[in-house]
Amino acid sequence: MVEPDRLRVALRVTKGELAAASGLSRDAVSKTRRLQAPATQARLREVAEIILTDAATMAAHEIGAADLACAWKDPSARGLKPPSWAITERLVAAGIAGIIVPSFAKGAVAPDINVVFWDWTLAAPHQVRVIDDDQRLPKDASCWR
């Protein structure tokens, strides 16, 4: 059974935010009977499938940490496919719309993550919504200039 608390911790959200982001009611992730329902578990499995910071999930998809952390710029410039791109192709072919991965950026530390989307829309099943209750995100693209 997929445990909402495991997902909540991995995603760094509250149970309410997990429910909203998953298209589920708060009761679906809080009440035992609703949590055990096949439809709820199916949706939570879809969410859990994208978290590649978990060793068990990585193993289930036959993904090694070194393949995620690989340098991609040099091999791609030489016409080679980096291992991380092969991972992407496999996951996309399996219908996975995005992943959460450890950050390998210079200076990144263990809790740092990246969220990578390949397929998203404003509607389910690949709905992406921004939750910015603290108003910390920029309001426009000017910060990227």
Description:
The chain is mainly α and 145 residues long. It folds into two domains: 1-48, no CATH class; 50-140, no CATH class. 43% of the residues lie in helices and 7% in strands. The chain has helices at 4-11, 15-22, 26-30, 32-35, 38-48, 55-60, 65-69, 73-77, 83-93, and strands spanning 98-102, 113-117. The radius of gyration is 17 Å and the shape is globular.
How are the elements arranged and paired?
Blueprint: H1 4-11, H2 15-22, H3 26-30, H4 32-35, H5 38-48, H6 55-60, H7 65-69, H8 73-77, H9 83-93, E1 98-102, E2 113-117
Antiparallel strand pairs: 1-2
The largest sheet is: 2 strands, antiparallel
Tally the beta strands.
2
Question: Quaternary state, please?
Answer: single chain
Number of helices: 9
Q: What proportion of the residues form beta strands (DSSP E)? A: 5-15%
User: Over all CA atoms, what is the radius of gyration?
Assistant: 17 Å
Question: For the residues shown, what is the average pLDDT?
Answer: 86
* Cα end-to-end separation: 45 Å
Point out poorly predicted stretches.
none
Q: How many domains make up the coordinates?
A: 2
Element-by-element helix/strand order: HHHHHHHHHEE
Biggest β-sheet: strands ordered side by side in the sheet: 1-2
What structural category characterises the helix and strand content? mainly alpha
- Rough outline: globular
User: How helix-rich are the residues, as a percent range?
Assistant: 40-55%
Keyword list:
globular; two-stranded antiparallel ribbon; 9 helices; 2 domains; 145 residues
